[in-house]
Amino acid sequence: MSRTFPKTARVVFERESTRYGNFVDNIRLYVRGGCGGMGLPRLGGQGGNGGDVWVMAKNGVTLKQIKDKHPDKRFTAAVGSNSSIHALRGSKGEDAQIFSQTGICVTTDDGRIIGELNNEGDKLLVARGGHGGSLHSGFLPSKGQTRQIRLDLKLIADVGLVGFPNAGKSSLLTALSHAKPKIASYPFTTLRPEIGKITYDDHRQVSVADLPGLIEGAHVNKGMGHKFLKHVERTKQIMFVVDVCGFQLASTTPVRSAFETVLLLTKELELYKEELLSKPSILVINKMDLPEAEDKLRELQEQLENQEESGRHLPDDVKPRSPVHFTNIVPVSASTGFGLSVLKSFIRQSLEEQDVIQTESQRSERLLKLRRQISAPSLPSWGNPHVV
């Protein structure tokens, strides 16, 4: 599928306010529905139900704000009013609402998913209020539901940058979006996600997330572990960023070539959640301005073309179960700007092709569902002599 893209792209970075300094992507809350109101036995009056507790998605709110505004992290709905001679049916207690940002997965303490908040205005019932006292309960009310819940943020972005520490992800985000994440020559510089936005000349925007660097064993929660990997789940595509000269975390750890780095990154994603590898992926070979980069790039390309043979000498815990495939392999230099215009075009092309495929897939599913409904009309049993 061929498309024409703007030669240049104007890039804008949008950063959340630094008023709430530390990044928070998971909080635990105590929620309790309101108790029901008392019934009135002598007149058969029914007490009002207790209020419910809801979590509602709202733009401009962060988990850090919830944590700061409600340090006790307790949310309780109001009690239902008692039945009286003036109002035999008591009124319902006022609901409690917890406003949160979009991209939230709400779970119970044991990990059961209650639901997700993906769009502004989405809401979930997390604690139901108790019933008011009535004839069936001896006019005694019931208590509201009590539980511990977790609000877990999973960033929503078009593209997520995946790489080992010091691969140049932050530098690449800066070059693509004029963002200003922390950059240094030591491994762990990205300790919180940074999101930049590429705005093309036709005003199309693509969000790119720089996520904390992985280390070997991230799938078992080493290093940033699950705190990082969960954010990959909601990105539409994955961009692997690899240092063309390889990677070494510390003097006590083995030196990994660029080819081994690609395999290890893939293996970590595979072990954490294999479905992540079904996402379209772009491989970015960074630091092409370094000496011997051209030779290293040719070696990597040959190894990727013959993965089984090239990885024969590697231990099984390094190699993914299936060969690695990328929609595009792009050599760049974040420091000099080499290859960035090509990368921007590939990012947009890949996303648009994915949108077309998803639209066609959804259309096919709707047509198939409609055909099934038409081909299997429901017949009343009284009109069909063969139905027993």
Automatic annotation (TrEMBL):
Xref: InterPro entries: G_OBG (IPR031167), GTP-bd (IPR006073), GTP1_OBG_dom (IPR006169), GTP1_OBG_dom_sf (IPR036726), OBG_GTPase (IPR045086), P-loop_NTPase (IPR027417), Small_GTP-bd (IPR005225)
Annotated GO CC locations: mitochondrion
Residue ranges of domain Obg in the record: 21-156
Keyword Nucleotide-binding annotated: yes
GO MF terms, alphabetically ordered: GTP binding; GTPase activity
Keyword Disulfide bond assigned: no
A Gene Ontology biological process term: ribosome biogenesis
Keywords tagged on the record: GTP-binding, Nucleotide-binding
Compositionally biased intervals (Basic and acidic residues): 309-320
Region of interest: Disordered: 303-322
Residue stretches making up the OBG-type G domain: 157-352
Source organism, top-level taxon: Eukaryota
PANTHER family (UniProt xref): DEVELOPMENTALLY REGULATED GTP-BINDING PROTEIN-RELATED, GTP-BINDING PROTEIN 10
Record protein name field: GTP-binding protein 10
Organism: Triplophysa tibetana
Lineage: Eukaryota, Metazoa, Chordata, Craniata, Vertebrata
